[in-house]
Design goal:
24 strands, Rossmann fold, alpha/beta, 544 residues
Length: 544
């Protein structure tokens, strides 16, 4: 028995070493039509084409994956990029040196970036997933680093996401076995289907696309009772952890604000849109509710696709002007050039900016998002064409669902802090500067938000609060693990209440200087205990 256990230990140790040395890389072909054929040979792939040179180059390696992907590919390279998993990184070098007529560029994937999980319906940017679902570009989920969040959790049936919207069908393939209609709603052109799919549509079922929190449950209700929000309070009392409201009105109700406070006390977070009115009409002064209520996470849209404006300059022939579209971290979808000079940084067109104001907490991608309602009702694969906020909110809602799934005891009042701490600061993006203070803390990052929750309670790494400049808002965070602050500012009206069981380290470039309205309270509490355990997709993650 002892010998058997020792042998098992050696086998598992060997597997661990092999897994760690496995090489992942991107490889770019010179021609979009090039697709080398492979056939399955046990656990590996065998080249089955007629190119003798390529066959010779591949024969000395064990290849697990060799397939096209849109992930991380620029516009001109979308159909030329391959994702490869092999036993040795030397394969990439061999192909680039000896098969230079076929391949022009390669890039190794760092070990930290291998900590991902992709279901089998992950669209055209799929790498380790099989892509059996809708053939659609899910680069917005890549941009949010959702596969890094899925490495820890894909959601939990015990965590319920509330959808206050148009109707869905509980027996629909994306919602069956996990959804319930609490109050009936109208069809609204499939709006509810699209919102529910983005937040929590079922993943890994070879159909549609995975929602952000795809293993979470869904309770659906309507969007009436604007003065009391009684339909939302009802969900909260039923144990719903986060509620999505992709709708809004311009009138404030004190009774509705009281309902929001009641739901927060119940442990429920509400996410709502800032709405779609163009900035050219709102001028940053139009607030919609429930997004504008205190303790609601208000969401607006931004762009995510092209890394630099030079990658997507377009020409409007009838007006003889150049313009840009869908540039990463821009809070508007389109913009133009002064004197039509494309060498200069563009300015955003206010008409292309969805409503921004001081109540907005976070922005996330708004264009190119899959519209499941169109597939459901019209059998069409379509994506959003403009920066509508309705489809943005469920990205945030799904992220929060993952956070609660990973650590069900996460205090609801700390969720917004984590979302903002882990967002991408976009203040230094030149075209955004005229709108500073109106787009919240910046761009949502689902991967970092979920990892922060993991770090707070796994006690493996320090929790990092970094790379942000906050001059307002109230922040609260309670971590079992050590906390590190670096390259971080809390100034003016900002309030921070931070508690750690171990240590709080104030590192370089950290500024803690609030004014008389602000406050910094740092506390070490050795008596802190976890209220529950982390619920991981794969328990072995704790051994990484």
């Amino acid at each position: 028995m002892r010998i058997s256990l020792l042998l098992l230990f050696i086998i598992l140790s060997s597997f661990s070493v092999i897994a760690q040395t496995e090489a992942w890389f991107y490889l770019r072909a010179r021609d979009t039509s090039f697709v080398p054929p492979f056939e399955k040979n046990g656990d590996y792939l065998k080249y089955s084409g007629n190119d003798a040179r390529l066959k010779a180059a591949l024969k000395n390696y064990k290849i697990k994956i060799f397939k096209k992907t849109w992930k991380h590919a620029k516009k001109q390279n979308l159909k030329k990029t391959f994702f490869v998993v092999a036993d040795n990184e030397a394969l990439m070098t061999d192909l680039l040196q000896n098969m230079s007529h076929l391949f022009e560029f390669g890039e190794l994937i760092a070990d930290e970036d291998k900590k991902i999980f992709e279901p089998n319906d992950y669209g055209l940017t799929s790498t380790i997933g099989e892509n059996l679902g809708a053939q659609v570009n899910l680069d917005y989920l890549d941009f949010l680093e959702v596969p890094k969040a899925w490495y820890y959790t894909t959601g939990s049936r015990d965590i319920v996401i509330g959808i206050s919207d148009g109707s869905i069908e509980p027996d629909d393939k994306e919602f069956e076995g996990k959804s319930k209609i609490v109050r009936k709603s109208l069809l609204v052109n499939g709006h509810g289907f699209s919102v529910a799919e983005t937040a929590a549509g079922q993943g890994d079922n070879g159909y549609g696309i995975p929602g952000v929190c795809y293993d979470c449950s869904i309770y659906a209700t309507n969007y009436r009772h604007l003065n009391t929000l009684e339909q939302l309070v009802e969900l909260s009392k039923m144990g719903v952890k986060v509620i999505n409201c992709s709708w809004g009105i311009s009138r404030y109700y004190e009774t509705a604000q009281a309902a929001i406070y009641e739901m927060m006390d119940n442990g429920t977070v509400v996410v709502a849109v800032g709405h779609n009115i163009a900035f050219s009409k709102s001028d940053g002064k139009k607030i919609y509710y429930p997004g504008g209520y205190d303790k609601v996470i208000a969401v607006s849209s931004a762009s995510h696709r092209y890394e630099h404006f030079s990658e997507n300059i377009q020409y409007l022939k009838d007006k003889e002007i150049y313009y840009i579209k869908d540039i990463r971290n821009y809070v508007g979808q389109t913009g133009g050039f002064k004197n039509n000079d494309t060498t200069q940084t563009p300015s955003l067109y206010p008409i292309s900016i969805s409503n921004l104001n001081t109540s907005i907490d976070i922005v996330a991608p708004g264009t190119g998002l899959f519209r499941y309602g169109k597939l459901k009702l019209d059998n069409k694969v379509e994506t959003t064409q403009f920066n509508q906020t309705s489809s943005v909110a469920p990205l945030v809602t799904g992220t929060i669902g993952l956070m609660f799934s990973l650590y069900p005891c996460l205090p609801a009042e700390e969720v917004e802090s984590i979302i903002k701490f882990t967002s991408t600061n976009i203040d230094d993006v030149e075209p955004n500067k005229p709108y500073a203070g109106l787009y919240g803390s910046g761009m949502l990052n689902t991967g970092r938000a979920v990892k922060m929750v993991f770090d707070m309670f796994a006690e493996k790494e320090r929790v990092k609060i970094e790379n942000q400049r906050f001059s307002r808002w109230d922040f609260k965070l309670t971590a079992i693990s050590e906390v590190l602050m670096q390259n971080q500012e809390f100034t003016e009206d900002s309030n921070l209440e931070l508690t750690s069981r171990k240590r709080i380290t104030i590192a370089k470039n950290t500024v803690l200087k609030p004014n008389a309205k602000g406050k910094i309270h740092l506390k070490i509490d050795p008596s802190l205990k976890k209220e529950c355990e982390l619920q991981l997709r794969d328990p072995s993650v704790l051994k990484d």
